[in-house]
């Protein structure tokens, strides 16, 4: 095949080709994402309202629906050079294994110590906090990738970092905790007795293994109540998708270099940080009517925000201390089955992606975790990279689409996001290796419990 | 600084620039490494003698002291393309942190799922086994990097893989075991009751936590006793240093691209696989009188083969089932303190490196593990990569040399090998984070116990 001779296994851009500006997909959206609103007044949150929670520059980015390109400060670009550009890999070995005419590419974001794409936004958020003269930041972490990324960014810049880590991850992943401690972070299992909201949740449910929503509540409470601190978040927010656009911009630049036009772009979706970043420039072309792509979000069947959630205003956290965001949500009280080891456990979804999905500009599918780990194992064996369970959701659907091409004979070009590595997910792999993994799909009754907690007010019917 | 503008953070070669031939430093050595000998007859091992243990092509490579360049088969180069060329990184952030005029570069071999350089030889050894029509291979692993690498290579080629894992690592690193299992390997803690030698060692010392030397004995016994199997080894052997020369060849090509001439090259040394590979082309220039470099081996003070060992013939394994190799050794019965968490626990050293060290062509220093982890933490925080404890030995000495430059004002160029990542070494990092790490330096009396086990015969006085 002629193309085989020309396209290398890994397409690397040079450091000079790292984007100089982030791309803000909101600028090209006809229907903008709904604003965050105050849960009491239902009025849109102003910059002043958000200032006690987020640092000023990030508030401006959060609220900016109009500026298409925002400069990446040189200091952040310098940090990016430590691990970017990330490679766009042609999955020759996977194609051969599947015996498919499809051409498969993946953008690999795992070649850094945080093990995922999360570092792209962590350094940006830490940088703006430092620039504002703050002492430190608080955050939550689930699987631990975001907490690790933020710890690394804070160590680099000399900022304090307090991480609330979902208790089940804290216990299942002691090594993640030690990476964060090596980078100087203070790590607390959530729910904890260090916050009002944590004590309340523990009193109501002493055996809870925690949730992202609950850890967010604790981190926000501490940030708002501590002088010189702000809260930072690794997903969901508009600012995060902005920073993560480096993934998509690099992907597009690498594809353009070889004249490759993808037919579909596939990404896993928890809060939407990777998917939103990966697809943004492609979605921009689609929104501007320049080109069409299939864009596919993949979520776990055990936490199906897009495919079974409601598109309404809801709290971003379990403790109901955050503003309301309009998004696909399972309800802030929804906690996925403890049997689900595959990450992507957040009840809601990025408001930007929610709006795009609502407007029919992207698709969503849900997959069960045994099938996800089957794909992960196959991928590891042929492509050599042990993927994160989260990323493996995208691998699953990329494989499924490539197998469809095998049936139809179509030579489609598939691009998917390989967000990270699974080196800290071996408890889950062990379960899979031992045949002890099970799939839990919430019943309608179980979902109804989460939906019942969604705030009701005029215009927010579910 | 003008150079800062020109030299990127990471120098990447293209896939086309992956070496097409390995470099065999023995060809340029005036004093060749001593041959392996039969422990009974003290005669050099012939190809026929080695054939039951190693596959034929590898025996040929093991015995070839003359061919300077050996072709890398295309299939192996294709596998290399999945994770090579590895970057040569300019440690700008470390230089700034140290405020040194030294220029520091590191060749980073950790960006693959095995987490180290070991994959370079694993794929070669698995390839030749497959080519010979074998069913599978056996090996030992200590920290787990080699076992993981071999599992990956075997999964890729469809070979069986039986790994004997040093018991203390098996227990401290259950996740390493799961990675290997994900790649389809059969992993057994060593010593085990699956071999004669294992049962003997267990009978004599039921509480032993194992050693590399002991695991080698078991793996060799199984290979020799099982139809269609051969034994493979991740370090020490001449063939391994040959395969690992890709590290040095790429390093040299990257330096040459920017006209950089290093003053010193630093590598950690356990059995010598990384150091031997990294330094080989530079050593070649030195041996041919073309250029001079300082070449520095760094070993743990708790397992000081070079700095306190004897240069004699000794067994490669604890069970004394292997041929004898002439090398710097602490005695095959030497087992480093269980308190030592920093890897590099092998009692002997590559015969090639041993000869070069004996001939005054390289230096060796030993470092204590607390100092090693201090260097690891500093490196992680400024360079963003969590290093393997093994690699951190080289970091320690690179930092020490850079600090000397700060005192003298010399702008020396330092290149060191960053062999791998520490994602599976968090038990050790946790000890360090908790201030519970201690340094054990063996006393002369403790070393004497190991030396007592070295075979004595005419010409092998210690």
Structure description:
The structure is a homodimer of 462-residue chains. Chain A has 462 residues and is an alpha/beta fold. Chain A has 2 domains: 251 residues, 3-Layer(aba) Sandwich (Rossmann fold), CATH 3.40.50.1100; 171 residues, Rossmann fold (3-Layer(aba) Sandwich), CATH 3.40.50.1100. In chain A, the strands form 4 sheets. The first copy, chain A, has a 7-stranded mixed beta sheet, with helices on both faces. Chain A has a 4-stranded parallel beta sheet with strand order 8-7-6-9, with helices on both faces. In chain A, strand 10, helix 13 and strand 11 form a beta-alpha-beta unit. In chain A, helix 6 packs parallel to helix 7 and helix 10 packs antiparallel against helix 11. The mean pLDDT of chain A is 95. The interface between A and B is large, with 43 and 43 residues.
What's the short version?
The structure is a homodimer of 462-residue chains. By secondary structure, chain A is of the alpha/beta class.
